[in-house]
Each structure stands twice: as structure tokens, then as C-alpha cells.
Inverse folding.
């Protein structure tokens, strides 16, 4: 099989399965993993795919799914650490917080280790386990456990959220767009995010820049109600000036935790 044919077949596999590992692709085409890496390098140059830790996903503006939590945590790792640390600078004594489930919000939770006198409500058991060693009060919403992602969701989660009116929400998202705002591919997960948005006084969105200019099926919230958007500046394809005009406050961080406010 010619390289061009194999590359096209790789795209077809990703459209069907959403993701693949280098090992799986090598077995599929009966070639060495180094050959697959060369194919992926070429596809990445043409912006058709996005490399992840040990694998690959289709690079598309419409988000239908996402990797499991462990894969997402290693993708844009240093950017997510810097985003979490910057977000922690907005925390004040006696704050009450919603922390949404997500790989970026997990790093935000880690950055709260030295904070105290907080009340934190989360639907993520991984986040709750990190916060258990702090002096803060931690409340877990309950709900149905999504085992691959450590999150709790569903009717019980949404009902629990209605009982809280936190000062700040730290929201994660797989997709954000200038026109469509924050969206999500799963209606059940989107409904929980929507409930969090309704209850919170201030909304902080924490997301790496690979999620920009992406749209998913279910609407979560418009851009104009977001108080602070914190992201990284590694995505050179983003029209940062346009995003600045759509948000009350946009902060980009470098992996060395230096930041720029627009």
C-alpha cells in the first residue's frame, strides 16, 4: 500500500473510531510503528490529525467525543498545569466554589493545596480525592459514576447542584467558539454544566487552546456571561484579538506560568 493510500485509510479509521493508538494502526496495516509515525507526521503537517500521548485523534472543528481522562490529562499537560495555577490566583478566603469535572480543572484543584477556608462542591471524585488532604470543606454531588472519567452525572447530580449558590464556578469544556460559545457533545453532561452556570455568581472557563474554534451539539452558555476565560497561547491559528472582543477578561498563560491579560 502506498503511503498516500495508508494516510487516507488512517483518516477513515479515525472518523469511525474517533481515536487510535500507534500500535493499533501499525497492526492494522502490518507495518512498523516508525512507518505509522511518519504517516502521522505528514497528516499533522496538513492539520488533519492531532497527536496525543501514544495515539492520535481526528482534527475537526466539530467535537463528537473525547479521549478518556487518562489520555486527556497527558495532552497539553504543561499548559493545563499553568492554567490551573493562574486560576488559583483568583481564589479568596471564604470563597464557595463549583469545580466542574475535567483534566484542566483537576490541575486547578491541585493548585488549591495551600488555600484554606474554602467550600468546594464538585462532581468529580478525582478532584475530591485531591482536595481531601486540604483544610477546605469538600462536598461531592453524588450521581451516576462515569468510570473512565471519574465524574458523577445525571439527575441526582443536577438536583444536588440546585441547592448551592457558589460565588465562583470553574468550568471545563471540550469546545468553545466565537459564535456558539461553550458547547458539549453529550446532552447529560451538558445539562450538569448548564445547572452549574445557572447557580454560580461568577463563571471562569478553564480550557487549553486546542478547544478553541470547536463546536459541539449541545449549548452550555454564551460567551458574554463568562467573567474570565483562562487558556494557553500555543494555538497559533486562533484569532486572539477576536476572542478578546468577545470576553470580559481573557488570560493566556505560558508553560512557565507567565501570563498576559487582554
Amino acid at each position: 500500500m502506498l503511503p498516500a493510500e495508508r494516510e487516507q485509510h488512517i483518516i477513515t479509521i479515525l472518523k469511525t473510531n474517533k481515536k487510535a493508538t500507534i500500535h493499533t494502526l501499525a497492526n492494522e496495516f502490518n507495518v512498523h510503528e516508525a512507518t505509522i509515525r511518519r504517516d502521522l507526521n505528514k497528516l499533522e503537517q496538513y492539520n488533519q490529525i492531532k497527536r496525543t500521548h501514544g495515539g492520535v485523534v481526528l482534527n475537526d472543528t466539530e467535537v463528537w467525543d473525547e479521549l478518556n481522562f487518562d489520555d486527556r490529562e497527558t495532552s497539553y499537560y504543561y499548559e493545563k498545569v499553568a492554567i490551573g495555577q493562574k486560576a488559583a490566583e483568583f481564589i479568596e478566603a471564604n470563597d464557595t466554589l463549583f469545580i466542574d469535572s475535567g483534566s484542566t480543572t483537576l490541575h486547578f484543584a491541585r493548585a488549591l493545596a495551600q488555600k484554606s477556608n474554602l467550600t468546594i462542591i464538585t462532581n468529580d471524585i478525582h478532584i475530591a480525592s485531591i482536595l481531601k488532604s486540604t483544610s477546605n470543606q469538600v462536598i461531592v454531588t453524588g450521581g451516576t459514576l462515569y468510570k473512565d472519567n471519574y465524574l458523577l452525572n445525571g439527575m441526582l447530580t443536577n438536583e444536588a447542584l440546585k441547592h448551592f449558590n457558589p460565588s465562583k464556578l470553574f468550568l471545563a469544556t471540550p469546545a468553545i467558539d466565537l459564535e456558539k460559545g461553550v458547547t458539549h457533545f453529550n446532552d447529560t453532561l451538558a445539562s450538569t454544566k448548564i445547572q452549574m452556570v445557572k447557580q454560580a455568581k461568577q463563571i471562569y472557563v478553564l480550557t487549553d487552546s486546542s478547544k478553541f474554534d470547536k463546536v459541539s451539539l449541545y449549548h452550555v452558555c454564551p460567551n458574554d456571561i463568562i467573567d474570565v476565560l483562562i487558556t494557553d497561547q500555543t494555538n497559533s491559528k486562533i484569532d486572539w484579538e477576536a476572542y478578546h472582543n468577545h470576553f470580559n477578561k481573557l488570560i493566556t498563560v505560558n508553560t512557565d506560568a507567565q501570563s498576559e491579560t487582554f
